[in-house]
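quick one, two chains, predict together pls
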Amino acid sequence: MTRSLLVLGAISLAALILALAIGSVNIAPSELWKVIQGEGSALHRTLLLDLRLPRTLAAFATGGLLAVAGALMQVLLRNPLADPYVLGLSGGAAVGALLAMLAGMGALLISGFAFAGAMLAMVLVFGLAHGTGSWTASRLLLTGVVVAAGWGAVITLMLAITPSYKLPGMLYWLMGDVSYARTPWPALVVLVLAILVILPLARNMNVLARGPMQAAALGVSVRPLEWTIYVLASLLTATAVTTAGSIGFVGLIVPHMLRLVLGNDQRIILPASALAGGTLLVLADTLARTVIAPEQLPVGVITALLGVPTFLYLLHRSR
Amino acid sequence: MIKLKGLAVMLGWMLLAPPGLAAPICVVDDLEVEVCLDQPAKRIATLSPGATELAFAAGAGDKVVAVVNYSDYPEAALKLPLVGNHTRIDLEALLALKPDLVITWRTGNPPAQMEMLRALGLPMFAIEPRTFEGVSKVIEQLSTLAGTEQEGFAEAERFRKGIAEIAEQYRDAEPVPVFYQVWQTPLMTINDDHLIGKVVQLCGGVNVFGDMPRLVPRISAEVVLEADPHAIITGSVEGIEDNQLDRWKSYTGMTAVAKNNLFFVPASPISRPTPRLLEASRDICERLDVARERE
C-alpha cells in the first residue's frame, strides 16, 4: 500500500518539476534550482515565482480535490458514474460566478460568489432529498441531477442575456481555467486537511460500499457517515470550482483508473486519488499552455484527450 | 565674498545636475487612471488589434514588441511577435518580451489576467474610445508616453480635421434610416453610443436602433422588419459582397430590399477605434448618398 503511494508521490513530484520547467519560456532544471536558492535572472524569478509556481500548485490542488471528491461521490452514491458535479455543485458555483461577472465584480468576489453558490447548491439538494421518506442514495442522486439541470437552465439564461463583451470571460470560466487561481494555498490547505479527516473514516467507507444494511449490521453508523461524506465531497468540489472553474473529467475518471490498478480499498484509493488527480491536472495544464503557444487552450479539453485513451487502455488490460 | 562663493557653488551644482531628474511623463487613460513613466516607453505591448493600430498611428510603431491575434494593420504589425488572443493572453510570452508599457482594451481583455499584470507592476494604459475626439485623444496620449509627440499630435489633428470636414459636408444631408448589422446569428446591431453608430450619424444616417439601451443589442428579424430601414449595411472582408445579408432578400416589402440598398463596407476599419474610421466614414457616407439618390 505504501509502496504504490510512494510511487505516485514520486510521479507527482516529477510532473511538478516538468511543469515548472516547461512553458513559453523554457527554464532548465539548473536554472530552477538557482531561482529557488534566491538567485537567477529577474525574468526567470518573475516567471517562476509569480506565474508558474502558483499556477502549477493550484493545478495540483484542484486536480487532487476533484479526484478525491469524485471518489467520495462514487462511495456515497454507490454508482460508478458519479462525479463531483453530479449533484449540481458546479452548477450552483457557476451561477454564483456568472452573477458576479455580470455585475462586474473583481476576481476575489467572483470566487466568493462561486463558493457561496456551491454551498447553496449543497444545502438545497440536502434539504430537498429528505422528503417524507428516508434519505436513500438513489433519492439523493435523482434530486441532485434534477437540481443540476435547473442550474444549467439558469446558466443558459445568463449566457443569453449577458452583453457580448462579457461572454468570452464567462465561457472560459465554464470551461475551467487554472490561470484564474491567484493563490494556490486555500486549495492546498483544504486538500491536506480533507485527507487527514478522511483517512480514519476510510475503513468504514469500505464497509459502506457493501450497502447500508450490511454496514449497519457490521456496526457502522451509516447516516452520520453518509452526511460526513456528502459535506466533505461538497466542500472539496466547491473549493476546486472556486479555484479554477468547472474542470470536467478528472473527478470521474481518476478514481476508476486507480481502482483498475490498485483495487478498491478506500484507504489507498483516497490518498492515491489526490496524488494522481493532481498529477493529471498538472500535466494537462502544462500541455494546455504550451501545445499551441502563444494560443492558450482550456485545460478541460486536454484532461479529456489525455484521460480517455489512458482509461480505455487500462480497462482493456484489466479484462 | 563667502556669499559669492556659495552662489557660485550653487550655480555649479545646477549646471552639473544629472539630466535624469526630469519629471515623469504622466497621462490619464480611459479608465481615469493616471499612468506615469520615468522615461518614454521603448518596448510597448498592445493587447488588441485596435491598440496596435493606435500605437502605430501615434508614431510609436517601431517601439511595439508584442501584439495579439488579428493585429493585421499596418502591414509592419504582421511581423511582430504574438502573445495570444485578446481574450486569452499568454502571460509568460508577454513577460519574456520585457515590455515597459502595456496597452490594454477595457472591455476586450480578460479582467483576471489584467489584475495579474497589474500585480506584477507593469505600467498599463487602458483604451476604450467612444467618440471621435476620444480616438484623437488616445493617439495624443500614446505619443506622449512614447515620446513621439510630433507624429502623434499631427495624426490626431489630421483625424480631427477629416471628421470635421465630413460633418460639415453632411450637416444638411437628408436623413436616411439605416440598420447596421454587426452579426448574423445571433442578429446583433449597435446603438448611437457605439462608434459605428456615431459614424452613421456623421453621414446623416439615422440608426433605427439608435436609442436602444444596450451598446450591442441582440434583436429579432421582426423588429427590423417593423423598423423598415431604407439601407442595410454590414461589414465584410475588404467590403466584398458575401452572404451575410442574403436573409433579407426574401423580404421584398422592405424598403431597403426593394431599392437594393444592401451595402457592404470593409469590416476592420469600421470596427476598430482608429484613424481608419475616416476611410470607413467616407465609405458609409458614399453608400448613404447612393441610398439618397434612389429615394
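The interface with chain B takes residues 23-25, 43, 46-47, 50-52, 106-107, 163-165, 168-169, 172, 179-180, 182, 289, 293-296 of chain A (CB under 8 Å).
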